[in-house]
Design goal:
This protein is α/β, with parallel strands linked by helices. It contains 11 helices and 9 strands. The two termini are 28 Å apart. Bound molecules: acetoacetyl-coenzyme A.
């Protein structure tokens, strides 16, 4: 258990990675490191079947710790910057479905954490953005890359060049946010969605790999990856269960063992 990042797993196998550094979950080096450790822990725990990342009822994360960054030299950041990206790579590469539940602000590194999740659920009064340019720097935890891949390079350029934040509604319109709900409901909505994925078959992991890794490949290589994973899904117990259940009971009734 970290000082600022904790992991709890409920009886349905949904892990909550909780950012907890008052008042705004500013991401100092320790938080980044603990976030990476939390992701590794979720990835290696067979009981974890889906993950929600949550910054509490007030704020998701207002970005990297500016007070720490103000004292950071080029050489220190050169050595440390890759670590930010590594932590988010650990999160992004989790085999389980990951949902970011966003309240208040997801700015800078906060937005970048959310971008590493499969889905973003946001409170209707939340704000998202990449304000680094206003500090004289650029996003350094994947913001210029994942944002552009998600919403398109033009919208990403607008957000990164201007530093403007957008409301949850605007973010949903551009595809940055998937679901908008009230601040009181956002965590529970994310948990409910995560529980649904937690009940899904082992093939969900294969679907995630095919989509995420395939997106980085040319079409031929991506289709070969899909083909291999498609065949591999037939080796799972859940594939037997799913098809037998369809034949005997009709669609959508299978109870999967995640094996
Ligand atoms: N780092 C360190 N401290 C921060 C912080 C941050 N990112 N954001 C807020 N704080 C601190 C404030 O300094 C303030 O501290 P004190 O009480 O000691 O004065 C406290 O948190 C509360 O903040 P505000 O008084 O500003 O609260 P607010 O409700 O008026 O505004 C806010 C909230 C809109 C989030 C505003 O604080 C803000 O704009 N924060 C900075 C956002 C930002 O620029 N993030 C990008 C960081 S760079 C980055 O993330 C690089 C990367 O890609 C990895």
């Amino acid at each position: 258990m970290g000082e600022f990042v904790t992991v709890s797993v409920d009886e349905d196998g949904v892990a909550t990675i909780r950012l907890d550094r008052a008042p705004v979950n500013a991401l100092n080096r320790q938080v980044w490191a603990e976030l990476g450790e939390a992701a590794v822990r979720c990835g290696s725990d067979d009981d974890v079947r889906a993950v929600v990342i949550w910054g509490g009822p007030k704020v998701f994360a207002a970005g990297a710790d500016i007070k720490e960054m103000a004292e950071t030299s080029f050489t220190e950041m050169y050595a440390h910057g890759a670590g930010l990206q590594e932590s988010l790579r650990e999160l992004e590469r989790l085999p389980q479905v990951v949902i970011a539940a966003i309240t208040g602000y997801a700015l800078g590194g906060g937005c970048e954490i959310a971008l590493a999740a499969d889905f973003r659920f946001a409170a209707d009064d939340a704000k998202l953005g990449q304000p680094e340019i206003l500090l004289g720097i650029i996003p350094g935890a994947g913001g210029t890359q994942r944002l552009a891949r998600l919403v398109g390079i033009q919208k990403a350029k607008h957000l990164v060049y201007s530093g403007d934040s957008v409301t949850a509604g605007e973010a949903a319109e551009m595809g940055l946010v998937d679901t908008v709900t009230t601040a009181d409901d956002v965590y529970e909505e994310a948990m409910a969605a995560a529980r649904r994925y937690a009940r899904g078959p082992y093939a969900l992991r294969m679907a995630k790999r095919a989509l995420d890794e395939g997106a980085e490949l040319d079409l031929d290589a991506a289709l070969r990856l899909e083909s291999t994973l498609f065949a591999a899904s037939f080796a799972t117990e859940d594939a037997r269960t799913g098809m037998r259940s369809f034949i005997e009971e009709g669609p959508g009734r299978a109870r999967f063992s995640q094996r």
